[in-house]
Amino acid sequence: MGRAAEILGVTPAFLRNLGAAKLIEPQRSAGGHRRYSRYQLRLAARARELLDQGTALEAACRIIILEDQLAEALRINTELRQNCDHHRPDNARHRPA
Known about the structure:
- The protein is mostly helical.
- It is built from five helices and two strands.
- It has a two-stranded antiparallel sheet with strand order 1-2.
- β1 and β2 (34-35) form a beta hairpin.
């Protein structure tokens, strides 16, 4: 946890607060130390940005969750469109909508 806090320029308490808010739940080492993934560190960095802008912790966590859900929905949408285009006959691909 100390190294993760150092990388992000935050305190270990900040990371614990993100865990308490259920934004990130780090894995635990055999010795009980918190281990953060790169993805979790990106979420924590985004939370820090929002808090620095004056956003409350709970609101920041909700914003981050919604941003993450939107990104995933857009990724799935793109994938589905590509699959749909791939299976469409050639003459249907170029028809105007």
